[in-house]
Amino acid sequence: MSKKKKFLEQPFAYHQEIELPISTLTNQGQGLGRIELPGEANRRWVVMVPFALPGETVRVRVFRNHANFSEADLLDVLTPSPHRVAPLCPLFGRCGGCQYQHLNYKEQLGWKRQQVEELLAHMAGVTFPVAPVRGSPREYGYRSKITPHFGTPREGAELPIGFLRQGTRFDIVDVPHCDIATPAINQRLTEVRAEVRAAAAGGAFERGATLLFRDAGGAITTRHEDEITEEVAVTDGPVLRLRFLARDFFQNNPFILPAFVGYVREQARASGARHLVDAYCGSGLFALASAGAFARVAGVEVSESSVAFARRNAEANAITNASFHASDAAALFARLDFPGPETVVIIDPPRKGCDDSFLQQLFHFGPRAVVYVSCDPATQMRDLKGFLAAGYDVTAVQPFDLFPQTRHLECVTTLVRR
Fold this sequence. Notes:
Blueprint: E1 17-25, E2 30-37, E3 40-50, E4 57-65, E5 69-79, H1 105-124, E6 145-146, E7 149-150, E8 161-164, E9 172-174, H2 183-201, E10 209-210, E11 213-216, E12 219-221, E13 227-233, E14 239-245, H3 257-269, E15 275-279, H4 285-290, E16 296-301, H5 304-316, E17 322-326, E18 343-347, H6 356-365, E19 369-374, H7 377-389, E20 392-400, E21 410-417
Parallel strand pairs: 3-5, 15-16, 15-18, 16-17, 18-19
Antiparallel strand pairs: 1-2, 1-4, 2-3, 4-5, 6-11, 7-8, 7-10, 8-9, 11-12, 13-14, 19-21, 20-21
Helix pairs in contact: 1-7
């Protein structure tokens, strides 16, 4: 392979092979090792290696140098970790969907807890004991929604339908079976792949597309606009029947969802507040699960279609103390008449976290407590700095592993106003 353009020549040559020990895992799921550079006895250079595990000695091939670290591909494990296991999926290491199939599940949970604790200390400046990660009842076969992709069909070539190849932005790995998806999805996946390839051979697609598979209790839909009914038996709470569009956001691990939602509900209730606001409420999951513990509940959301579903879900579940509002992002709390000191707020923002405008509105509202749910602990810990400055203290940090075999994690952090 020819040298890549604009390759930074130091400290390693392109495709130079080196041996190094791996000391830790990053929150991106990569092994991190340090190596002493020639002539620099007091400086240990960082090398990132996907699929290498702490405690291992590995041989790697460098493909990129940055200003203060390098990236390398794993060539051989010279000294394996005692926690290394055989991955279930034959595509592991090529498909970019999973990062941890080679790591014992108990160790996955331990490393995820440590990563949250390190992010809390380094990004928020808080030393606080993070609770052990609550694991998923299913380690495989848990994911109730997947979105395989395919590119522009090429005449005479079999169409790959799957997910991005590890370390690339456009190359698709063909995935005939996904071990983290539910069995019902995999059964339908086989049928749809054959249908798409037949249609592509007939000239049905001029460019690529993204497919959708959503499992609602074994009933599979592949149409984005279909309405889904999901039943959630919240731990120590109600049994809810919720409707939403197949394309809408909804947590994708139904097997851990009762415990996850139950914990959020109990953290909100334990604040002692009389009222609850569910910001980013979607189709009303947290608001409706928690409604029985509060005098009044309000859900706030910028999506009018999601608010319409939340209202329907409240009516279908005979919940009369919850109202839902579609509000502009610049005035999310403007229509609320709850007193801040008597209110707890649940927030579950997208992966990028909260923007400054939302945080300033929230701090101005001044709730008694906030239960912050995040699918990216790094952006959550970044946001915590604003909460600390606004007069809130961290009282609980509880991670949930909604995504076994991957680097992803849900983290629930409770903040109480001083």
